[in-house]
Each structure stands twice: as C-alpha cells, then as structure tokens.
C-alpha cells in the first residue's frame, strides 16, 4: 500500500518549512507501528499553487500511483486542496482521499456532503485516527472502518462520525517527526516548524485554534532533544507554532534559556501574549540568539478586548516592548485585527498608530474573519456582524462600524501592507499618527482611481512600470505636503526614489536585498549584510556614468555619498555602499546585454560580472519556492537540455566569482558600510523584509 501526504500551500522565502508539521506527526506515528511500517510506503510531498495549478499538482500525485492521499486544510489552502483532489479523482478514480485540519474538521458533514472527491475527514487530533485507518485498510487487528473514532465518513451517502476522538494527554507518546527522520530541515530554507504544546488556554472569541482542546505540553526533555537536533543540523530558521509561547512564564523562561545555552544560531520565531510579558522574559529575550517576536496586539480598545475575551494592558506592556525594539537580536512583529466587535474605525486607527509608535520591524493587520464554530460565530447577531462566507469569511460591517467605515479600514490595511516600510520611515520624519497619514494617502490614491481592486492588483510582482511612476509622483507630492505642514525639511524627492525602489523590488528587480535572500536560502549565508548587488544594461552605461543621481534627490538627501550610482542599485537607496561607483559601471563591456555589479566579498571592492539570459533565468528563480533541481527542470523547458545540463557549471562560476560568498571585510570596512547604510535616512531603522 502506498500513502502520499500532500502539503499544498503557497511558499514564501521566509517560510521555514514547506511540509506541514501536522502531516509529519501522522507519518511518524503511523511508521512507529511495525505492522504498518512493513506493509505501507509513506511519502511526503509539498506543492506550491503559485507555481503549479490543480491539474499539474494532481498529475504529479497521480504519477506516483498512491492508494491513499492525505492533506491538511487551513483557511488559506482549502480551495486549492479541494480542486486538486477533484482533478486527482478524475485521473485516478480508485485513490482514496483523507482530509484533516481546522478548515474541514469543524464542519466535516458539509465537506462530505458537498465534495464527493473526499472519502474521509479527520475530526480532531489525527495521529491515532490515521493509524487506525491504515490498519483497517490493511485488514489488521483493531477497530473496523465504521468504528474509528474521529473519522468522518459516509454511510449510504449520509455523513456520520462513529465517535469523537479523545485528545492525548501525554504528548510524548507521539514520536518526533524530526528525531525519527520522517521530516528534515527544509531543503531550500533550512528551517523547521516545531511545537512544545497543543491546545490554547485562552478563549479569544475570534480564534478557532485548539477550540475545546485541553492544553497539554511536550516534556522539556523532548523539546530539548528537538532543539539539540536542529542545532546539530545547522537550522537557519525555527518557527514555534505554539499559539502562546509565554502562557506559562516559567516554562517560557526555561525554553529561552535552553536556546541561549545551545547557542542556537537560527532565526527563532515565537508568538507571545503581551500581557504575560514581564521583566524576566524581556531580559532573556535581550540575551537570546536572533528572535522574531510575534506580539498579538489585536486591539488597544478595552471595550473590544472584553468583547473578544482577550484583555491586556497596553500602558504596562509598552515600556517592555520598547526595550526590545532597539535590540539587534530581536525582530518585533505585531498583529492586529480590523473589524472586532465594539471597535469603531477610530479605535482601529488608534491601535494602528499605537503599534506604529512602537517602531516594529513588521506589522500584520488582518481583516476580521468569522471562522466556523468560533464563539464569535454565535454572536454575529449580538454585534450585528455582517460577513461574506464566500470570501474568507471577512467582516463587512458591525454594530460599531458601517460598511463604508469597514471599507475605509480595509483600504488603510491594503496600503499599510503594500508600503509599510515607507510609512514607518515617514511617520518618524513628520511625527504624525500613522493611521492619519495612511488614511490621507488612501484617499489621495483613491481620487486618481486606486480602488480596493486596484490596490490588490499591486500586491503582486508584476506591477507595470507606468503604475510605479504614477504612484512615485503622487507619493512625492504627498510627502512634500506633509513636510511643509509639519515644518520639516523637504525629503520628498528622496521619498519618491524610496517608493520606486520599493515597488520595483516587488517586480523582482535585482537588488542587494533580493540577492541577500538568495544567498541565505541557497548558499548558506545567514543574515548577510554589506554584499551589495545591482544590475545595469550596457545601453545605460553612458548616462549612468554621466549622472550618478538626479539633482533633486541630491538636494533632498545631501547626506548621500556623492560617488554612489543609485541607478546601479536599481533604486536600492537603503543599502548604499561607497564602493559601487561610476568607475565600476564604466568597466562594463559595451557588448554586454546585462551585468551584475557587486562588492567583492574579500576586499569590498566593486566587481562587474557580465551575464547572459540563462544566468538571468537562473537567478530570478532563486526565490525560495524552488529547489535547485526544480530550477534545472524549468531551465530545460526554456533553453533546452544543453543549457540545463550546464547549470552546475553556472552555479560554480557564480560561486567562484564571489557572488554568493560571505563577506570577509575587516572591521573598519564593515563599520563604514553600516554607517553608510544608516545615513540613508536620518532617524530611520532597518525594516525586516
């Protein structure tokens, strides 16, 4: 018997692991049964719907000829999973399909009634259910198919659940997917998802995590074993999936101290509940290896806090969060929600401004979704909540926010997501509440035709250059007006170039920031700095050499080094280094179509590397979604087998030239680079991308 576990979800360069941890636990627990291990082959595959359509994913699954396919469903991937399974059944009708996860578990009856391509739905924790299903399919001793607790199924076309599946109290009964070897670090990101507990002790009414599930923890010895394994394997990113890392402060302190003792040199993502943050935990975070700290703010309005059963004290927590903000080893990321009960539009804006004032590296502002079987779903009449069940369950109106106000809030959210790093810098320069600035910009953009649909179209990597230029000019006028109003020096021309860089970078313009991501993902250089890369065409060399940057930019930002060619950086104004100069550009051969400009990793001197279309295609695909083998297959389709077979040599050439080599500057050069970078905008800080 062959079982295929399918992780179907969009990948991003910062996603630590493309395989779902839940499926890893199913795999490890099933394989711990000797009778299953000797009779069943289990494989775990990941598929990215951004790269492959449902037909292609289904074709790849069918080609492996599995007897059973299992997939985990969340709110963001369920439509892709269902379409893929429908196409899979068309290609391989005899395959059996098992779905699990919160998006289908809570309403298994509807899934089984509406989606005939699904044979079973796991309800609740799935490890025991999955193992008993495999034993039943193999005819081994144990419950029959119709007796398996937690397995939603059909009986004469009618959905039924034989019995609820009790939750495990002793989580150490579950073998670790990593320690058993069924999962490894992600081959691209060298990262891992891991958990130290299940269930959530809080009862936030908007959340469906661990609903009605008791809180249980893995033993500290088990967690230590996994962290030691990750350290030994050289993990670069660890994402803790616990909903509240600091629920028990003493245990959280033990885990942070463990990471310090292990010298865990990985970006460690953890989520905390702000009201449980105290001086001891703050001190440990200050001493920890690199930490990405997720802080669930949601709202600063006390009425709304009580309505959603998530009360905390902003005035007590703010000084502790501000203490962490300046730490080079702590990257703070805040989360908030638009449309909560009892929140007005002004309350939402106040929360947004309060959070911006903390100077976070990242701020995620979500639109409230009424998730199935959450307490809030039963309170929609009480709070007069209108929501769209077809579009992510998103809220449209509440008793305290009209449809127009929710729409305004969503426009603020959309622009915040698109231009967050620019708003963070601008609101420090002009000293106005962030929400007022973003709302002002949203109305100005709307006046020239940027409706919400138009804004959503900007959240891609295919923004038309004409659109970038239109927004850049509008942004320059916008910043100039605010500088005049606040009696600040006019930095609007520099701000215009920042926006151009920001949006062109989204189009995957080659910049130092992008190539830093590439080196980190594929060539083993974590937290790369000072290794700057730009791109230039031969046709532009004369103009580039003649004019380093526009006069209005020079006037707007006189602190910029005069010998730096901004266009060689493709508008990368926040990663300037003095060694990329006009002289370096002039080294380019007139015959070259394109060339990379970068700093030599050993000396810091400028380097120029002429490149061809195959090299361009190769580097563009180093985006965190594809393995090197997948890139080779794509190049074969584009350029033929000969070019694809030359990929190893191409990679060696780039490595030999030093493009992916960690910088080895002396301390004085590194200090110069950091000082230059910091001078790019006074009072600004680096935004985490």
* CATH architecture classification of the largest domain: Alpha-Beta Horseshoe
The helix/strand class is alpha/beta
CATH superfamily of the largest domain: tm_1862 like domain
Strand content: 5-15%
**Strand arrangement in the largest pleated sheet:** 2-1-3-4-5-6-7
Q: In CATH, what is the class of the largest domain?
A: Alpha Beta
Number of strands: 20
> Helical region count?
27
Shape: globular
Question: Your description of this structure?
Answer:
42% of the residues lie in helices and 15% in strands. The longest helix is centred in the middle third of the chain and has 28 residues, at 403-430. The strands form five sheets. A seven-stranded mixed β-sheet has the order 2-1-3-4-5-6-7, sandwiched between helices. It has a six-stranded parallel β-sheet with strand order 8-11-12-13-14-15. A three-stranded antiparallel β-sheet has the order 18-19-20. It has three domains: 2-160, Rossmann fold (3-Layer(aba) Sandwich), CATH 3.40.50; 184-401, pyruvate-formate lyase- activating enzyme (Alpha-Beta Horseshoe); 508-678, no CATH class. Strand 12 (267-272), helix 10 (279-287) and strand 13 form a beta-alpha-beta unit. The protein is built from 27 helices and 20 strands. With 689 residues, the protein is α/β, with parallel strands linked by helices.
Helix/strand layout:
Blueprint: E1 2-8, H1 21-31, H2 34-39, E2 41-47, H3 54-63, E3 68-72, H4 78-91, E4 96-100, H5 102-105, H6 108-114, E5 120-122, H7 127-138, E6 151-155, E7 158-160, E8 191-194, E9 197-198, E10 216-217, H8 220-233, E11 237-240, H9 249-261, E12 267-272, H10 279-287, E13 291-298, H11 302-307, H12 314-325, E14 330-338, H13 345-357, E15 362-367, E16 386-388, E17 394-397, H14 403-430, H15 434-447, H16 452-458, H17 465-485, H18 492-506, H19 512-522, E18 533-537, H20 541-546, H21 551-556, H22 582-586, E19 594-599, E20 606-611, H23 613-620, H24 628-639, H25 641-645, H26 647-657, H27 667-678
Parallel strand pairs: 1-2, 1-3, 3-4, 4-5, 8-11, 11-12, 12-13, 13-14, 14-15
Antiparallel strand pairs: 5-6, 6-7, 9-10, 16-17, 18-19, 19-20
